[in-house]
Amino acid sequence: MIDRVLxxxxxxxxxxxxxxxxxxxxxxADLASHLQxxxxxxxxxxxCIGQSYFGIRQLLRTLxxxxxxVIGFSGMxxxxxxxxxxxxxxxxxxxxxxxxxxIAKDIIGENGIEGYSPIFVxxxxxxxxxxxxxxxKHVLDEMLFDYIxxxxxxxxxxxxxxSLNAGETNPEIQGVYSKERGLMDDRGKYRRVNVDDLTxxxxxxxxxxxxxxxxxxxxGFKALEMVVSRGxxxxxxxxxxxxxxxxxxxxxxxxxxxxAMKAKYNxxxxxxxxSTFTTNRExxxxxxxxxxxxxxxxxxxxxxxxxxxxxxxxxxxxxxAMSDANFAHLFFGIExxxxxxxxxxxxxSTTSGSGSHNEKALEAFEKCEEHGMGATAYFMxxxxxxxxxxxxxxxxxxxxxxxxxxxxxxxxxxxxxxxxSELYTQLVSEERIGGEDLNLAxxxxxxxxxxxFDAPGILSNPQLGxxxxxxxxxxxxxxPKPELEKYVKMGLTSNGGADRTANASPR
Length: 507
Ligand code: B12
Ligand code: SF4
Description:
The strands form three sheets. The chain has a six-stranded mixed beta sheet, sandwiched between helices. A six-stranded parallel beta sheet has the order 7-10-11-12-13-14. By secondary structure, it is α/β, with parallel strands linked by helices. It has helices spanning about 25-35, 50-65, 80-95, 100-105, 125-130, 130-140, 155-165, 210-220, 250-265, 280-295, 315-325, 340-345, 355-370, 390-405, 420-430, 460-475, 485-495, and strands at about 5-10, 40-45, 70-75, 120-125, 145-150, 175-180, 225, 230, 245-250, 270, 305-310, 325-335, 375-380, 410-415. It starts with a strand and ends in a 13-residue tail after the last helix. The protein is built from 17 helices and 14 strands. Helix 1 (about 25-35) packs across helix 7 (about 155-165). Iron/sulfur cluster binds near residues 234, 236, 241 and 333.
């Protein structure tokens, strides 16, 4: 009988430039809450917290003393290597077969845990997008995981445990795959959970004080990170979040959760981590009204808010309502200042109202300033076909945005082809990248950028790596300003001086 479930968040992406992987594992908290509601006892070990040594110790002690019937491992593509490594180490430690690693010998002993053989389950974004691959490598070949779960896990994982408890050894559940069921049709794996079934995430199972404290250095106030919607209706080619069926948790429930978290952890605000917070304008207006009311009711300083959204999902009414509700900061995926690149990325920001992408970006930063809100722009470089002149246009837009808002940040990241995104599939089919797991570049020191789209007029990988590093150092760490012209010359050299202005002008 399975009555105890342990969920493991793998170590985050490496701590190079621009990284910091201590974030609330929102999906795991939702999953845990759902399992609890089905009478299962749940624990979570987040290996992103503290030194990995401490996390592994906690994990091994939990296995030794608590012996959960199921261990569930999560993972995104960039963290999936860590997922696999952790699962392998635990298998060895529990069985006592093979080379047991040092700490495991101390805590469990060399012979493993006698009579204990938990079921290993894996789920999360990587497995959702690379289901067949994970199934082949880590279920059929390696037999590391007994089951993998694609898509949102609340219903499926719970159903899997309930079916196992009912004596079914190989339950037929959509989105759940095992050795016995093998490679199979994976249609329907994205089916969404009914948001009405989502209750309060099981934050009490997490070391919330650590996350809340970490948020203070990032956003300036002690924030609770929350995700209140599922899906995103856009089709950006670099992103794996696209799902037109966007659903929001009712405002009432969200406010109730915020009140409870304020009472428990004395949070100073909430940082919404939804893909596009303002997709549903009506919901956002309703939330702002309720948040403003809450701020009138509470004693002490008003709660602050932050959220990510798109420049074309903001308008005057929303700026005013969000500022009245005490939103302190908005994050925008600007991605590039070049239309050529924006086209490749399918990041179209001019569908509502008039004005170009760059004008809209500038307007959003100015409006934030006008309403006393800070603004952050995310830029991406190293996309297929991007030329040095495109990068120059992005840098020039970044400078304008920085000047337009006195509390602005500019973040630069290299493009990382993510499974589940259209561009990834296209690049694999064109054989411009391999189909292997790409646990790469996100936050590693950019010189390691391991592939690129080297071609005339485009910076080579080492050049690109150096430029991203310089941009991050300048915009995030107060380093010297990158000499862009130096790179322009490099771009010129690599294409022998051929036309670098193939892309349309952004204005
Ligand atoms: C909020 C968010 C973040 C937050 C918090 C992340 C976190 N720790 O959960 C922050 C900003 C920190 C973040 C960071 C990153 N993120 Co992020 N993030 C999101 C976002 C917008 C929402 C995530 C969310 O809460 N969704 C709702 C929950 C319920 O879904 P979920 O987390 O996927 O979990 C469900 C299922 O996957 C499944 N599940 C999860 N774990 C398990 C385990 C088991 C055993 C089972 C059975 C099921 C299961 O059940 C859960 C409940 O339904 C998504 C996009 C999206 N709309 O999903 C991107 C997304 C998940 N992120 C992504 C990426 C790439 C990253 C980064 C690597 C990016 C970067 N630049 O560094 C980092 C990695 C951080 C790290 N750990 O090192 C990608 C992942 C794509 C992929 N192929 O893996 C996504 C899909 C966005 C995208 N760009 O396409 N992210
Ligand atoms: S990049 Fe943002 S807007 Fe585009 S599909 Fe992804 S989450 Fe949606």
